Input
Amino acid sequence: MNEEQRYIPEDGCPLFSERLEEHIVALTRGEVPNRGRFCGNCYTPMARETQRCHHCNEEPSSDRGTVEQVPEPVIEMLRAVHKTEKNWVNGFAYLGLVIAVFAGLGIVLGIPYLRERLLAATIVYAIILLIGSRGLAGLLGGYYGDRIGFERARRRLIEDWSEWVDEREGAGSAT
Ligand SMILES: [Zn+2]
Output
């Protein structure tokens, strides 16, 4: 997965800045506590002296100040994103492997010369499998799986995020 070249889509959902993602990954590994100073809007970690969030450009105000920890639902949203992405990448990589197995078999059985020579056929098949499965798994998983997974995950994230924002704003104004 090429996380470094990921763009931030202009879809109205400010989650997840790179720094928030790093924080949650480290949190999941137990490397950092869920304590600190986070933007009250997008939950990007903010340094003590920072006045304005670098990610969503929101300034902490009396309405919505910074928070001390990232809310659990937001952490869950990122985990769901990662899970969806991983499933699509792995699924497509597996599909690539299956295609290589059957296409290789088709090629070997389709060439009369190889059909009569078991050793030569085995060698050719092994080469096709070695190169083909890696190539196809990389292409399908790394390219299509990554793209589709990202889009699916993002779409769901936008829904979850807007629900969460409704809840957050609702809870804030109810008091
Ligand atoms: Zn922010």
Summary: The helical segments are 18-28, 72-110, 112-115, 118-174. Residues 27 and 33 are 6 Å apart (CA to CA). Residues 39, 41-42, 44, 53, 55-56, 58 surround zinc ion (CB under 6 Å).
